Amino acid sequence: MSTLHPGYFTDGLDADPALAAAIRGELHRQNAGIELIASENIVSRLVLEAQGSVLTNKTVEGLPYGRYYGGAEFADAIEALAVERARAVFGCAFANVQPHSGSNANAGVFLGLLKLGDTILAMDTAAGGHISHGHPATLTGRDYTIVRYGVNRDSERIDLDAVRELALRHRPRIIVAGGSAYPRAIDFAGLRAVADAVDALLMVDMAHFAGLVATGLHPHPFPHAHVVTTTTYKSLRGARGGMVLWNDESLSGRINGGIFPGVQGSVMLHAVAGKAACLGEALRPEFRAYNAAVVENARALAETLAAAGLRIVSGGTDTGLMLVDLSSRGVTGDVAAKALEAAGLAVNKNMIPFDPRPPEAPSGLRLSANAGTARGFGADAFRAIGGWIDRVVRAPGDDATLAAVRAEVEALTARHPIYGPPAAGISRP
User: From edge to edge, which strands make up the β-sheet containing 348-350?
Assistant: First the structure.
């Protein structure tokens, strides 16, 4: 027992009432509402406990079995386990599980494999790309020459001929596939052919569909990609963080060095333990069933919204996410998102391809079936969710409608509670 700080090793969250109230409030929000934000999911209790463990106390730098600090026996075992599982899940030769985020994974790859000023060809954020692929506000956008490709105006899908023309004109060193709001399967073989034509590397950021790749429900980036990055939450349903995967051993030193010491320092071992936990779950048969349900539920939601008269960008989805065009309703994404949150439905506003509106008040919403499926919602539940979204965006300023929908939302979530007291030592309010 610490005599200097009584209760230091024994007091829990209740020792800080203000913090405890906020965390319990967030637990209640998650439990009573429906999460439709594509960048979020709901982890298992196993992942929660791994992340909230004594690994929080341990600092290490470097790769397993080659650390700069001592006392790393169990830290090495945990990170090695996460690496082994990542390789097994995605069928690759090498993995780095240290990135603190998907953006750090991307930045580390760029730093390791490129020279400052080199050209990157990546999807424009206005077409569904991710900011870490070269948005002007990021270090990547500042430190490299960024050329952006978009989607075909009619199909709203990647046009390989247009990508090839840009690649031949600008001769990028890396071509990036994958994004933040692109709902369709990607032709990795076609993009690799473009990369080979200009002697570029192909990098695939599969953050939003990694779970589908892991279970054979989406085209696999390998063997077409030279390097693959991903987050470990979203469709992998695990700890927040990132990973880098590759097969060519000659890239190992550059990629590992790009992560550490290139863009970050000490390993967050508690997060690595959470990654090991979710990757272990991804090796189980039920994880494929989960991802198959995600695809089915996303299609049910998209079809319901389309039947209600809301346009689905590109006409549908091949993944767990979709973009919804609100233009026909005369409501903007920011207004709709605020009203939906009041009704218990958490979504995010999003630009659609060729959006005439600004990012702060765009024409669309981005929706995902990931978190609802994790709770056990089936296709019928997602059809009901589609109906609630339609009702809210028809009358976003009608408090009675929002209250009525919220009551129906809470009736559904009550049948699918998350965790149950106590979750990570926190009892439900």
Answer: 311-312, 321-325, 364-368, 348-350
- Per-residue pLDDT of 180-229, as tens digits, reads 999 999 999 999 999 999 999 999 999 999 999 999 999 999 999 999 99
What mean pLDDT comes out for the span 110-118? 97
Residues 4, 11: Cα–Cα separation, whole Å: 14
DSSP lists the bridge partners of residue 301 as: none
Helix axes 379-394, 285-307, angle to 10 degrees: 40
Q: Which residues contact 213 (CB under 8 A, 6 or more apart)?
A: 90, 206, 219, 220, 221
Starting from the edge strand earliest in sequence, which strands make up the sheet with 227-231, in order?
Answer: 94-96, 242-246, 227-231, 201-205, 174-177, 119-123, 145-149
Structure confidence by residue, pLDDT tens digits, 34-65? 999 999 999 999 999 999 999 999 999 999 99
Mean pLDDT score of the chain, rounded to an integer? 95
Using alpha carbons, list the distances in angstroms from residue 260 to 88, 143, 343: 23, 18, 44
Locate the domains of the chain by residue range: 51-282, 296-414
Query: Are the beta carbons of 194 and 169 closer than 8 angstroms?
Result: no
Q: How many Cα atoms within 13 Å fall on the side-chain side of residue 53?
A: 21
Neighbours of 254 (CB within 10 A): 17
Fold of 296-414: Aspartate Aminotransferase, domain 1 (3.90.1150)
**51-282: CATH topology:** Aspartate Aminotransferase; domain 2 (3.40.640)
Write down the number of H helices and E strands in the chain: 15, 13
Q: How far apart are CA 97 and CA 239, in angstroms?
A: 11
Q: H or E stretch including 34?
A: strand 34-35
